[in-house]
Amino acid sequence: MPLASYQTSVPVVVDDAKCIADKGCTVCVDVCPLDVLRISDMTNKAYMAYDECWYCMPCEADCPTGAVTVNIPYLLR
Amino acid sequence: MALDQIVDGLSEVSCDVLVIGGGTAGPMAALKAKLKNPKANVVLLEKANVKRSGAISMGMDGLNNAVIPGYATPEQYTKEITIANDGIVDQKAVYKYAQNCYKIIEELDSFGIRFLKNENGDYAVKKVHHIGTYVLPMPNGETVKKALYRQLRRARILISNRYMATRLLKSADGRIAGAVSVNTRTAEMLVIKAKAVILCMGAAGRLGLPTSGYMFGTYENAANSGDGYAMAYHAGAALANLECFQINPLIKDYNGPACAYVAGPFGAYTANNEGSRFIECDYWSGQMMLEFYNELLSGKGPVFLQLKHLHPDTISEIESTLHKVERPTRGLFQQGRGVDYRSESIEMHISEIGFCSGHSASGVFVDDNARTTVPGLYAAGDMASVPHNYMLGAFTNGSVAGIDAMEFADSHDFAEFDAADVALERERVMAPTRREDGIPPNQIEYKTRRLVNDYLQPPKVTRKYELGMRRLAEAREDMQERMIARNAHELLRALEVQSIMDCADMAAHASLYREESRWGLYHWRTDFPEKDNENWFCHTLLSKCDGKMTSEKRAVEPYVVPIADDEKDLYDKQRIRASA
Asked: What is the pTM of this model?
């Protein structure tokens, strides 16, 4: 069967202006228990690549520049 | 090389003791093993990152089961847990925990983790349980993982993050020989030979589907997909009392604790829509959950955690704990809904089902030395069968496992495994990456967990279970023949679905085997509604024999701490009776 992509609004938001992933920082990507964050090839900033979030907060708590915000996933908000 | 791109590779390393899972029990097991023999190699393997993995990723608000001299005795605690778990307890392991846990508290204190003290400098222990007093708040509970991590670095434990263990390896004579694992970002495989292996892989928390429909909105850390249960099963280890499900009273939709252990000692309580209490004791037992369930269905629901009657300063104190530790997004959630604890109660609901000995009694069978039924294989924490053991139990039993496993490793050489087993496992792991077309893991997972809700959630009805098992078998066939993984991350999820499917099958099999009702809501069988002590006052052990799932009875070990007849049903009397 063919596959279709599925739109979803993701809970983790990264402020590109504050994110220093382009300087080599990978803290949020490193600590995520579900491994859902990645560094974008296009912008060199962190972003949520997979909508598999436990809204647990290490990414936000450990970010050295305060660039990451965890929101409650829409389905349970 | 871009992250998640699949790399075909296989390498092999060896160590003396391999600890799988770096959450709570795992770091303590690794630390104790290394301190036991500093010359030995100890590897701590973790699917995520030890810095932030497991149930205590963001810390913990307190100890739920601290047995502290002057407040409680090991005898009293052993008695309480025996009664709370309907008598089906091998007391030796519980008693040993109760004797050792104070030493562990002191050790955690030396790591920099603080516990609440009163003005006299004594531990300020609070009462939540039915009989005894065991709850000890942790004022800097958010620092637990950092404190543990410092100890691991200092002891030079070898940490391998982002490796998911998939199967255990054994020798022809049945001894543990190591484990096969896969890198979750490259799909490269790593075989780890070990003289002893300790499983600390957490609960099976992604078994039922949360009512929100969000697959990762689980009570347990959603990374805890039951991989330890599945691995132990395939290695031939026995699993105990899996029908004693974990079901918790949680903040509705958020699906995290509210939490009665934090707020209860300050005067908060569980109430129905009339504002009345209906349960005697907020301690999480199956009997309490049954009354919670009955209240929700009775028309007197919804059920709430009542706080608003408390002094505003008290509420602020509770709020600061709830919104800082364990699940800090609770504050964000309540803010989004406009709920202020000062004016509104917290709406509660029943969680999806899971396996977890930390809260109930469903785990890989272990004795009082944390040994499983496979020589050289140990288990500790939420996935091991010591009942109601919570975070302090994970630390304490992890410590027991680490010491005993190192003794085992010191007295044994490496066991030899068959290279063909590794080749077979590599084929199984990589199969979803070799298909061009098929079903992605998220759809198979959703369907499996939806079936768990529809058919396996209590009340347990035999006919529903039979139908559920047929549907699960169909989903399993899809999983085995048609599942695809297009990158390494999707392969991680594909492997987790296989653990979830195994756990679903075990949940069904174990539940049908025990032909009685016990543990309140956890094992309520409508076709066998009564507790049957004559035939079922025993453990059930599930294992894989000749490739087939089988169950057998195992006698409860004679009690170390006797229970008087009039104490046995203390937890059965949970419902508050209207007095004349």
From this structure: 0.97
